[in-house]
Sequence to fold (84 residues):
Amino acid sequence: MARGWESKDVESQITGVHASVRQQDPHDLNDLERELANKRVSLMLDRSRVSNELTTARNERFRLQLRAELEYIDRQLAALEPEA
Fold:
């Protein structure tokens, strides 16, 4: 049952990212913007996967590695955000 909820959560995150990208007219996106949007989607998928693994991991060393990976992904996502 928990696996079903995890997949729904990932699906909703992907849908949310795709919806934010679709708000812009795809013809208005240049190659760089399209590449950044694809990178953001990929990072969000990676983040969801690592987060799910972290919830089920039992080995403390592996959990530390997963936390470090989450921090790295979060830094990469923050770098992709447009500056205000």
About this structure: The first helix runs from residue 2 to 22. Residues 2-80 form one domain. The chain has one domain: 2-80.
